[in-house]
Write a structure and sequence with these properties.
This protein is mainly α. 80% of the residues lie in helices and 0% in strands. It has one domain. The protein is built from 10 helices and no strands. The protein is globular and about 55 Å long.
Length: 225
């Protein structure tokens, strides 16, 4: 069990980083701190984001239980799932790279995040986890990977918690830092926001390709073993 536990935690890191390092995750977390009440609005956004990630991952964890059974030996389809996920991520990253010139500006909905109230910020964050196809796709991959890992029932929920914490870390970082430091972070946040607005398309493409290669390798390695 210890080897399996350590293996699934390591496997979840690249999946979680697809969400954590996506500018479409980080930029809204920075923009929400420009709201009229930045502290409560930011914390509400973080709560909605975490709950959304946890709910999606749990749904697909339960789905894996229906098709295979939690706590059993990982089936061969789990390795093929990783291969499919890896290939799709690579193709997605290549597509985003080719389209990067037409994606230099942030989507219009992002610019409206700074006008949200705390309640709307929580609802928006939860909705973004479902409406963002990449987040939905990665949570599905994580939930199915955890459910097919061979871990028993209490341990799989600890793995879900680990995945959510890593995936939400870059959203939590600016919001928690602002809750502690307040307006002193405004200049830094403004620079980060401006840089990510210019580079978000290239960053997304590169991250998708790198993580796709890691997931693909994991699937091929599992089949070979």
């Amino acid at each position: 069990m210890p080897g399996t536990w350590g293996s699934i935690l390591i496997e979840l890191i690249p999946l979680a980083l697809v969400i954590a390092l996506s500018p479409l995750s980080i930029i809204p977390a920075v923009l929400v701190l420009s709201a009229a009440r930045p502290r409560p609005t930011g914390l509400a956004f973080l709560a909605g984001w975490v709950l959304g990630l946890a709910a999606l991952t749990a749904v697909f964890l339960q789905l894996s239980d229906l098709v295979g059974g939690i706590g059993t030996k990982p089936p061969s389809w789990a390795s093929w799932l990783r291969i499919v996920v890896g290939v799709l991520l690579i193709l997605w990253g290549a597509y985003r790279w080719l389209k990067r010139a037409s994606s230099e500006h942030m989507p219009g909905w992002m610019t409206r995040i700074s006008a949200l109230t705390p309640a709307k910020a929580a609802a928006t964050a939860a909705a973004l986890t479902v409406l963002n196809v990449k987040v939905l796709f990665i949570c599905a991959a994580a939930g199915l990977a955890i459910g097919s890992s061979g871990l028993d029932t209490p341990t799989v929920w600890a793995a879900v918690l680990w995945f959510v914490l890593v995936a939400a870390s870059t959203v939590a970082a600016p919001i928690v830092a602002y809750a502690i430091s307040g307006e002193r972070l405004d200049p830094t946040l403004n620079r980060v926001q401006a840089w990510m607005e210019r580079q978000h398309a290239t960053l997304i493409a590169a991250i998708l390709v790198v993580i796709g290669l890691l997931v693909l390798y994991k699937g091929i390695h599992a089949l070979a073993g």
